Amino acid sequence: xxxxxxxxxxxxxxxxxxxxxxxxxxxxxxxxxxxxxxxxxxxxxxxxxxxxxxxxxxxxxxxxxxxxxxxxxxxxxxxxxxxxxxxxxxxxxxxxxxxxxxxxxxxxxxxxxxxxxxxxxxxxxxxxxxxxxxxxxxxxxxxxxxxxxxxxxxxxxxxxxxxxxxxxxxxxxxxxxxxxxxxxxxxxxxxxxxxxxxxxxxxxxxxxxxxxxxxxxxxxxxxxxxxxxxxxxxxxxxxxxxxxxxxxxxxxxxxxxxxxxxxxxxxxxxxxxxxxxxxxxxxxxxxxxxxxxxxxxxxxxxx
Length: 303
Known about the structure:
Distance between the termini: 59 Å
Number of domains: 1
Largest sheet: none
Low-confidence stretches: 1-15
Helix content: over 70%
Structural class: mainly alpha
Number of strands: 0
Shape: globular
Mean pLDDT: 83
């Protein structure tokens, strides 16, 4: 009788502890998988930069790494990890941060005269994208939103991430976008050589330059920006805002230096995200796209 009473609390504690242990084990597995994907994406992205793929080299390297690692887990370890949603959101945030920072120093006064043209071109591209997406959806019997995300000129990573937010066919969106971007990368050099009379300098590789500035002020500002970006990503995940982490980080990158200028204790300090931030962001986006390909390589229609 006493033995049964003494065993009962132990069993209850084990039952209560098992969900926590299972969650910790899942987190450890996700970290191991993501680390392996990052280590594989680095040499693949570097190799693609040598082939002059430009900035998309790191996304394509991540796609290949995510697909290979996830399939390897499934084949060799009988483990099928789900696409890492947090990694995708973080990647979107980092890319949005660098895009916003790259446009922070644009002289808005010089752009005012071109606003009508920009509005016209934006509307024209939107209408063209809607039309092409509608035609593609009818021909391929694909959901209209999936077709529009696949055909609109918005980038492989961003469009695929939005497709994931809306639970659409990420593999199809990423495939069509990758074909479009690859076609542009391969065709533009020929067009450029024709326009400049056969002479064209090799494009600047995105791995050149300083990967990270180790100055104390820049490291401190980088830490602040990453914390703010993390908060933006957390809010986007919590409130389920489609592409909210991208646009929120974009606004942060575009306005951060202006905010610094208004601080009384900060003078003559300007921050720009180091190249490493952009590379990591693009690799994370590519990795999650590759995970979708490896998890469910369905290029057909999805409701």
